[in-house]
Design a protein that fits this description.
The structure is a homodimer of 500-residue chains. Chain A is built from 17 helices and 14 strands. Chain A starts with a helix and ends with a helix. Chain A has a seven-stranded mixed beta sheet, sandwiched between helices. In chain A, strands 10-11-14-13 form a four-stranded antiparallel beta sheet. Mean pLDDT of chain A is 93; it is low at 1-37. The first copy, chain A, is 40% helix and 12% strand. Chain A has helices spanning 2-19, 29-35, 53-63, 98-101, 110-117, 122-126, 139-145, 164-183, 191-198, 222-225, 232-235, 259-282, 306-318, 386-401, 404-425, 447-459, 482-497; strands spanning 84-86, 92-95, 157-161, 209-213, 245-246, 287-292, 322-326, 352-355, 362-366, 430-436, 439-444, 462-463, 465-467, 471-474. With 500 residues, chain A is of the alpha/beta class. In chain A, helix 13 links the parallel strand 6 and strand 7 (322-326). The longest helix of chain A has 24 residues, at 259-282. At the A-B interface, helix 2, helix 3, helix 5, helix 6 and helix 7 of A face helix 3, helix 5, helix 6, helix 7 and strand 3 of B.
Chain lengths: 500, 500
């Protein structure tokens, strides 16, 4: 089988490049033994249905401590490699979901193992600093080498945070602070501002809003949650803000057959967005910022054209609203460019770009004017984690060294073509195949069929995730190659045949 | 000097116990050399004023990337040891602030260095899982050995989160979900609940509130921030919720001279709290939960008696509100007990206890009924970080092995007695010395004098932090001993003499 052969060659070549150059370590008798294991397996290998008996037992054990309703199975991360996640029952699955799209270059990448074995990094691992007051010596250089080396166009400033929600929460705060400073003509806050904010009153705590889009997902803390509209279960029973929600375009596929309809749909959404901005200003809750994903991920992999985003950026500027592009799921290379917004081809794509997941650290980039005017306005104890910055710097090295953006573009083409073929083959079952790079999705006829497909695929060694009402999203890591796609398509085809 | 001698003996004995047993590592020529360095220095050593020239240069460099208004100086974490933080200019300071109270057992503790050098942990360091869906095999055991081994009374469930703000945000959500489930009689949400929450409307997003206390600090994301009332700069310009704020007792010191007045003050605050609960219910924004710190830390180290907290707990029960004790800063042992609420002597102290900082991972414990009824209600991509759980388990081992709670109680007595003596010596300058364990504070006559004292102390090798309007808070790690207190008192006395 060709894919097996290619996989092995790839593995051996990586071993030679990376492992054999790694300094030996007397600690590492186990790690050294592992160095002889391939960096990627040559296919799935299933021993039980999933979850297997060991996973079931552990789920029961964890159930005494936490809600386990979302647990898929328990993993053996030591034995996982590259694109393959191994579970505690010895099942080895091709992972096209990658921990909700958060593993950038596969499991146990040799470059990361080597990095974390380096004793020079020990101190970083055990002394977590309060980055906002007492950063380590290498912090500015590390930011320059990691996050700033992939900064979006027009942005040379970045604030790290611990996770995606904190990133968006703080980005919203930065937009509110920017907006009120504009309103005050950059003069000092009044005594009334100062005293009223302490008791949650206007004008200190102003009635401002963030405009978001139906179907969007921006996190689950209370500020973020007010802008999240993908599934009711995220929002139910949590108090929120009266903020405007605009429609996100619902494109019809194949795109080339619905050019006119899709353009009309996007125009409709832009018009409604502008209406909402005007309406909320009239209500006394002006829109300080607009937040949007380049591709609505959790909400069902909803795409829009570069024209739509260009139009939206113009509307934001026209009405004095900040423009925040949330790249928590789209960022990091899977669309074939490092940031999905690069596909829009704009010099000035955004005021703020937030990230997390595959970037390993959370945070947001921003234009100069969105830096808080005073200290302690955007602040918390940790403000990120230098350990994650270290890992990110090495991930970026690997992406460059192994040309992973180009590879992802190439793999993405093979993946979407494969999905088009399957869609033609199973017209009653599949529709709306879509994607950018390997960031792809396809719709299933209904939700129960989708669930059945996901479970049957898993039992055959294919780990996939859902999104939206009835989509399957594909979120492989950046080391997902043509031959992985062959394996995927073969198994997926078998599973679809069972649902024909 | 006695303290120097004791310090050296302590260091040598620790080296013998821990370092010399550590397996050698060929990687670790640098680390091995460091093993010969003592685990704690014998006193501060200052080479420049702080920040020194190297810190100034790095601050300038970082200023191109971020707001640096809060940066104190840059650190050399590799050279820092135990209670001593070393900066990039070679200054060595006795650290009684510990990264905003987040370093549990000092810098570069040998046990943690050994742990992070263990190749068996490498996979944990490089493969961050989505804990809510695909946990590692050792996750339930690790929770049992770490967090559950120190669970507050009545709680056997714990949810990890990445930071303190996320912990409180999710704890608030758990209280809202619990409250609405009670209101619905635990039946399923209505169609109207489901559809209205998607567009930020009642009844799906209900008008519920969290009652907090003036002077409290619970974080800076938007839900948390609505309950934070310590400094205006945290809250200014950020939209918020109309939630009730009750007064926190302002005790008069010395406590034994103001028994009657303080009891009256606490009774007044309890009465006002109950009034607010009634008032907000009448306003149609019922109080789902009460959140409080056992000691208001950021707000100025404000204490209240066990009677106050017992009264508050009763009020919460009476009105059907959840009771959330925020131990983000107080938890982890510095008060001499692992949780500050243990000093209240209650079997059923709380419904929810949140933590972060010295626990190294964020999260919250909760009673069974506060577990969300369905999956994905309390959820995010990472839900904590197993690397931090690993570190915490070892920190807890060290706390037990070295009897650090007892040690902290002992050091705390020496510290507060020293502060009492200084207060008697400088009556115009110092007042209201107070504390529990080493979690101590003292008030300075005014804010400018406080700033001057903090800066002069730092230049003499003593790193302290402020809190409230004019307090200095003492937040040493758990390895802060009698002889460190001697060093502190000597230098602090010198600095105070300059301000007499």
């Amino acid at each position: 089988m060709a894919s097996t052969l290619i996989s092995r060659q790839f593995s051996l070549s990586l071993q030679k490049n990376l492992w054999l150059n790694a300094p030996a370590c007397r600690y590492a008798s186990k790690a050294a033994a592992k160095a002889e294991v391939e960096v990627d397996y040559d296919g799935p290998l299933m021993k039980t249905s999933v979850p297997g008996p060991r996973s079931e037992a552990l789920t029961k054990q964890l159930g005494e401590i936490q809600n386990v309703g979302a647990i898929n199975f328990f993993c053996n991360y030591e034995e996982s490699r590259g694109n393959y996640l191994v579970d505690v029952d010895g099942n080895r699955m091709l992972d096209i979901y990658t921990q909700i799209s958060s593993i950038p270059i596969g499991y146990n990448h040799p470059a990361l193992l080597k990095l974390m074995s380096n004793p020079n990094n020990l101190s970083t691992l055990v002394n977590r600093p309060a980055l906002g007051i007492l950063p380590p010596e290498n912090f500015p250089d590390n930011l320059a080498e990691s996050l700033l080396s992939v900064a979006p166009s027009g942005m040379s400033r970045v604030q790290t945070m611990a996770c995606g929600s904190c990133s968006n929460e703080n980005a919203y705060k930065a937009m509110f602070i920017w907006y009120r400073n504009k309103e005050r003509g950059h003069s000092n806050p009044s005594e009334e501002d100062i005293s009223s904010c302490m008791i949650n009153k206007t004008p200190g705590c102003p009635e401002l809003s963030i405009l978001s889009f139906m179907g969007g997902f921006h996190g689950r803390t209370m500020g973020c949650l007010a802008t999240t509209h993908s599934k009711a279960i995220h929002k139910l029973d949590v108090p929120t803000f009266d903020w405007p929600i605009a429609p996100f375009p619902r494109l019809q596929y194949p795109l080339e057959e619905f050019t006119r309809e899709n353009a009309q749909e996007e125009a409709r959404c832009l018009e409604e967005t502008e209406d909402q901005i005007v309406k909320w200003r009239q209500k006394g809750k002006p829109v300080a910022g607009i937040v949007i994903e380049p591709i609505q991920a959790e909400g069902g992999d909803n795409h829009a054209s570069p024209n739509f985003f260009k139009g939206l950026r113009k509307i934001a500027s026209k009405h004095g609203c900040a423009f925040h592009v949330d790249e928590v799921q789209t960022g990091g290379g899977t669309t074939g460019k490092f940031w999905a917004h690069e596909h829009w081809g704009m010099d000035d794509p955004a005021d703020i770009v937030s990230f997390s997941k595959k970037l390993l650290t959370g945070g947001y980039y921003h234009k100069n004017e969105f830096q808080a005017d005073k200290a302690y306005r955007i602040f918390n104890t940790w403000m990120g984690d230098p350990t994650k910055n270290l890992l990110l710097a090495e991930v970026l090295n690997v992406i460059r060294r192994e040309n992973l953006l180009e590879e992802t573009t190439r793999s993405g083409k093979a993946l979407i073509n494969g999905l088009y073929e399957l869609q033609a083959q199973y017209p009653g079952l599949l529709s709306r195949a879509r994607g950018q790079g390997t960031f792809c999705a396809i719709d299933i006829c209904d939700d129960p069929t989708r669930s059945s497909i996901l479970l049957k695929a898993r039992d055959k060694g294919l780990l996939l995730g859902g999104c939206g009402d009835r989509s399957i999203r594909f979120r492989p890591s950046l080391v997902f190659k043509d031959y992985h796609i062959d394996i995927f398509l073969n198994i997926f085809n078998d599973v679809l045949a069972m649902h024909k």
